Prior knowledge:
130 residues; CATH 3.30.1330.70; 20% helix
Amino acid sequence: MVSLTVYGHPVPKARARTVRTKKGKSISFTPEQTASWEDSIRAQALQSRPGQLLDGPLALEATFYLLRPKSRPKKEIYPDRKPDLDNLVKSVKDALEGVIYTNDSRIVDEVVRKRYDDPPRVEITIRPAE
């Protein structure tokens, strides 16, 4: 089992952008904000890296803690607005591939949540599926 907390503002996985060069070639790239967040996840996950990458059926649990906007009541704990939860977890799964586990296709069970709290972070637990 691997548990880790990644500090920083969680960023949802953005779609790859495609642009055409002056010569007519198409180039695809990941937006800078998404790439920076995934790099931060990888860097912080290296401290929790297992001796051997996890393989086989895995269960992932992730709780995203977002800063509450000043316009939202303090008693509110559920961020029912953007960013989408599925895009948040996609960034995490892609970033941890090759660092914690062999491939994100190994994840067969998933429990993900988003809440308001300070500091912004994501708490992640990955374990063999039962």
